């Protein structure tokens, strides 16, 4: 398992690094039982310490959590508890998907753009139709089932997930609706 433990403008001591490795190692061994990659970042916001952890499972799923506290160890414990709760909730599914998928999830490449907000100009209507691209970057699109996509959405805490549906190879979207339910967009079924 590969660990990346770092701090944003704060020093991370050897004792904290060892503690994080042992706690996260137990968590991953308990639920995932496969080699993974773990990234833990500590930072400070005003008087609070913030711990953000991301666990990349070999099945392609990603779990992430964030914890806050006035001390650095309790911030990590808060983050670890949230991660434990997420992975406990999906333990059965994590193990079932692991058995069904002997190979890791394939990722396709896609472009991701950040567009500048449009300013309201009454006379220059034609120029306002063309947004300004601030940033262009590559992103990865997983090739997974709808069930795995919903689980990934829940584990990562995202509002939206774009994925390639393994059932038919088309691009699909799952998203969290305002009422708390999950929506699924499958353009192939729009006929």
TrEMBL record:
Subunit structure: Interacts with 100S ribosomes. Associates exclusively with 100S ribosomes, which are dimers of 70S ribosomes.
Encoding gene, per UniProt annotation: raiA
NCBIfam families: yfiA (TIGR00741)
GO molecular function: ribosomal small subunit binding
PANTHER family: 30S RIBOSOMAL PROTEIN
Cellular localization per UniProt: Cytoplasm
Source species, domain of life: Bacteria
Higher taxonomy: Bacteria, Pseudomonadati, Pseudomonadota, Alphaproteobacteria, Rhodobacterales
Job description of the protein: Required for dimerization of active 70S ribosomes into 100S ribosomes in stationary phase; 100S ribosomes are translationally inactive and sometimes present during exponential growth.
Keywords on record: Cytoplasm, Translation regulation
InterPro entries to which the protein is assigned, alphabetical: HPF/YfiA_ribosome-assoc, HPF_long/plastid, RHF-like, RHF/RaiA, Ribosom_S30AE_C, Ribosom_S30AE_C_sf
Domain Sigma 54 modulation/S30EA ribosomal protein C-terminal: 130-183
GO cellular component: cytosolic small ribosomal subunit
Family: Belongs to the HPF/YfiA ribosome-associated protein family. Long HPF subfamily.
Pfam families on file: Ribosom_S30AE_C, Ribosomal_S30AE
Entry protein name: Ribosome hibernation promoting factor
BP term (GO), one: negative regulation of translational elongation
């Amino acid at each position: 398992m590969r660990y990346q433990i770092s701090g944003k403008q704060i020093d991370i001591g050897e004792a904290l690094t060892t503690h994080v490795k042992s706690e996260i190692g137990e968590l991953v061994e308990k639920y995932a039982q496969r080699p993974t990659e773990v990234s833990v970042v500590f930072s400070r916001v005003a008087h609070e310490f913030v711990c953000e952890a991301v666990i990349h499972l070999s099945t392609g799923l990603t779990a992430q959590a964030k914890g806050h506290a006035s001390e650095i160890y309790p911030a990590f414990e808060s983050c670890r508890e949230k991660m434990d709760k997420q992975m406990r909730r999906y333990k059965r599914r994590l193990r079932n998907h692991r058995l069904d998928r002997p190979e890791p999830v394939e990722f396709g490449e896609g472009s991701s753009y950040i567009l500048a907000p449009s300013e309201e100009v009454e006379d220059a209507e034609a120029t306002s139709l063309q947004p300004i691209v601030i940033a262009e970057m590559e992103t990865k699109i997983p090739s997974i089932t709808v069930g795995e996509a919903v689980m990934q959405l829940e584990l990562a805490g995202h509002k939206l997930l774009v994925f390639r549906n393994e059932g038919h190879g088309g691009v699909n979207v799952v998203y969290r609706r305002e009422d708390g339910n999950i929506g699924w967009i499958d353009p192939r079924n729009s006929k």
